[in-house]
Amino acid sequence: MEASDQSGGTQGELTDAPDAVIGIAAEAELSEAALSALPAEVFAQSLSEYFRAWGRRLRNGESGALPIIGGLIGVVIFFQLEQSQFLTSVNLVNLFVQASIYVMFGAAELGALLLSEIDLSVGYVGAVAAFIIAELNQPPVSLPWWIGVIAGVGFTCLWGALQGTLITRIGLPSFVVTLGGLLAMQGLMLELATVDKTASGGVITLNGASPVYKLAGSQMSATLSWIVLVATLAGIAAYSLARARRRRRQGLAAPPLGVTLLTLVLTAIGGTVLVVICNSNTPAGVPWVVPFVVIVLGVFGFVLSSTKLGRYIYAIGANPEAARRAGVNVSLVRTIGFAICGLLAGMAGMVYESRLGSMSTDIDGGTIVLYAVAAAVIGGASLFGGRGRPLHALLGGLVIAVVVNGLGLMGVSTAITDMITAAVLIAAVTLDALVRRRAAPGLR
Amino acid sequence: MSISEESSATRGAGEGGSEGILLSLRGISKTFGPVRALAEVDLDVPAGSVTALVGDNGAGKSSLIKTIAGLWRPDAGEIRWEGREVHLHGPKDAEALGITTIYQDLALCENLDIVQNMFLGHELTRRGVLDEPPMEIRARETLRDLNVVTVRSIRQPVASLSGGQRQSVAVAKAVMSNAKLVIMDEPTAALGVAQTTMVLELIKKLASHGVAVIVISHNLNDVFEVADRIAVLYLGRLVVEGPASQFDRQRAVEYMTTGAVGRAA
Description:
The complex is a heterodimer.
Chain A: H1 3-6, H2 11-16, H3 32-36, H4 47-59, H5 66-82, H6 89-113, H7 122-137, H8 145-169, H9 174-195, E1 203-205, H10 211-217, H11 222-249, H12 257-279, H13 289-306, H14 308-318, H15 320-325, H16 330-356, E2 358-360, H17 365-379, H18 390-409, H19 414-439
Antiparallel strand pairs in A: 1-2
Chain B: E1 4-5, E2 21-32, E3 35-46, E4 50-55, H1 61-68, E5 76-81, E6 84-86, H2 91-97, E7 99-102, H3 114-118, E8 125-126, E9 129-130, H4 132-145, H5 163-176, E10 181-185, H6 193-208, E11 212-216, H7 220-226, E12 229-234, E13 237-243, H8 249-258
Parallel strand pairs in B: 4-11, 4-12, 7-10, 10-11
Antiparallel strand pairs in B: 1-13, 2-3, 2-5, 5-6, 8-9, 12-13
Helix pairs in contact in B: 4-5, 5-6
């Protein structure tokens, strides 16, 4: 990357004309490596330029989400060849619901990973939220469902904030604090199940009429599914076109119209495939949990990309010292990051119990944590902080769901499933490390 | 002899008394146990010029800039800012006055782009949402003002920038925070020839905007290239200070290594 400057103006030119442009770096003079480090939308003025820039990034190992999507397609083809019922609407709808759990836990873990921390407690934190929700909603307490949800998710959010406070104010390592949190929450979960006399054998069954049950256990009508899809796409289109227009009006670079349209078309194709699959299932319609996850990830993504809080989370993940010197309240932002972890883990627990229709102390919170970290990292978030988006949790969660679901269909034992998932995780982390090395040679 | 020695009372006379003097230090001392990091340092920093702070390792350069940046308080002495005595209780106080320090590590976030780095901690928002266009426009104007045109796009992450470009971003960040005094710690230490030239031009540009610049450097070539004034520290004492034109390499080296110039006085 140094070449970009050195190939530009020489010292002689500078002394002759001190006010002249210093070292003009024309495109041709920029090294391949320097160019490939740029996101394509940064400078592409047309669709074709965009594709060229994208191809350059690919060749240099800066591939973004492409390998994960490619890997996903590969795994899907493999399972379809092995088990012809894999690509049936029944199984795919089941897979989407299954994936929503991993996606939610992955998004929760992202709150810590972006800060270059880790939260090992998300699994049992989610379990505690699920028990609180179930116990408050079911007899003998029988409170309205939303009180249970607010209590459960509110508790886990506060728990996350408490862990964050211990980590940031006392300066304890997040690994240890959240390991303690894992044990504490497992204990609390068992206690909750013991206190509740209706939880026979540690199992509380959800009422089928409860919205919490319906989240994953019920679906929109086929018509509503189409309406929601069209409305969502229209919203995204209006937002991205308005944003690009506003930027152009102010004389700023905006992604070329072709790129915006292409993104929209791809999103529309994905959404249409999803709705077609779900509508051809019986009963027809998209499970409510799908729009729920999309909304949660959308809000999380908005907070990360468009608020000061999100900006500071990324800044702290990459360079806490720089953030501190810039006047950012680093402790507060990190604590909020852990609170977000707890909040999303609580919601993930709710999705978990909704899918099962009941909550049981048999939940393996330890494995869930591993899947959560795996989902985020496989999707493209960095374990080293500062890089990752909710979209990555979505992609990674889907990969894990496909692997778990496919191996389940093949009748592979849990032991083998665990080992294969582990291999996928290690491969993803290796990729992460290699990309970092290639993207920033000689840095740290 | 116009270079004022340590004992001289005429320091800064060339600048016309306190006119144009942004920062003046009088009798600044700092000790750590038996170690005297700074001993009775007097220094005037005029606005719109580049003051180079030179000296061997352990001469007290870092101690001095840490005092000015408010990182620690001197044991004795007085800091005057625009003619008024000030007490710096922390970096925030120095920042509030308009003192920005650019350390060697630059304090940039590699994953954020140039605009995001320049506005870090001072983001503009509209109804709680980051308002990107005005930030981008202001960042672009600031960079253009400083003649920083080598960057391909101000939306590229800092990770993709060269060392010189990163230095430019750090300087632009200081300019945008309306800094009146920019302290740069070894700005060219890790740079190649072309990039060093670029950063030195940038420093001159910064001074021409009326900003006072203090540059710490080991590299005398750079010092003579960019500095209007030179101040030499030796074992915690400021042994000599004056316009750069009155130094030559040999004198500067002698002051740096022995604290005095034997035959020239």
